[in-house]
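G.,

No rush on this.
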Amino acid sequence: GTSVLDPNRKRGYSIHYGVGLQHELFPRVSVAFNYFHTDLYDLPMTYNAAQSTSDYTPVQVVSPKDGSVITIYNVSNAARTRVLNVLTNAPNGEKSNNALEFAFNARLPGRAALFGGVSRDRTRQIACDDPTNPNNLLYCDQTSSSVPWLTNIKLAGSVPLPFGISVGASFQSYRYILSGTGGTATPTTVPGGTSWLITPSTRYAANCLGPCTPGALVDPGLTVAQFAVPLVPPGTETSDRIQQLDFNVGKWFNVGKGARIQPELTLFNALNSLAAYNFRSLSFGTSSYSQPSTILPPRILRLGLQVKW
């Protein structure tokens, strides 16, 4: 076959650390701070043992996104069809996550309540161990990239009103990191991002940016049918910030024999935010590039009923 498993391959594992502090600031008002750290070890890696770095020739490509120069590598015709993928462990691979969390909880006069918090987390990886294909070393060290911290905010509260009426509200604000050419959002991983799919016949546009020659072939020596040039460091692109505000109001009624009912009116996405968090494609230059495929559902009014007995 074209794939083999390294007999010395180890099972990956992770170590999790956490420390927290909780304190009552005032009567019925408490705050908490937590820190979490995760390290992953013996990360999996696949490389093509039938090739070597001498089979690759560097070529400079000018990004159509911002005019920056990116070095990619063309594999030789002789080595292009040689495939022997070895599944093993990355000897120097690293992946870690850091997360900070602040939360509060307040019991207010009149049986009102307010709670919420702010959290920040970031995952970064170093995957610079491929011994044969230098294309896999571009942006391989995410500690050198501007991988953002993801900040999430959540607030919620409720207030009882006269005549048995209860009013509540919640607010959340968050965003995702975009991954892959499909633009799928994910809150925890650090995947790829915008790329430029080129072929041996791809030419620079007439209005190309940077040190390019309009109309010239992008990579005259390209030996494969197509190649995805990463235009940005992976894990540095995010979705729109999703900000959702919800309200609800309800009232309990006693209907006899220990039974109660509560008609409830809920307004979802009161701000009518249309934030996009999935995109049809992250393939630069295509008609679907950066086109939203999933957005936050628009403002919705729902009438519900709870029954307890």
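When you get to it, here's the other one too:
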Amino acid sequence: MGNIAASSGCPTIDGLGPTGGNMHAKSEYLKVDSVVPKCNLVVSVINTLLKK
């Protein structure tokens, strides 16, 4: 979704979700090991934005 917004000129932060592959296909998968680190990244970004 972020890439669609960015392509329309809207400032966008993308890439904060967990990693995986084959998006929207029957063989789509999620790397479970990426969930907690990505959650920590989102928390860090939010905390940084709240300090401004």
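Residues 18-52 form one domain. The first strand starts at residue 20 and ends at 21.

Enjoy the weekend,
O.
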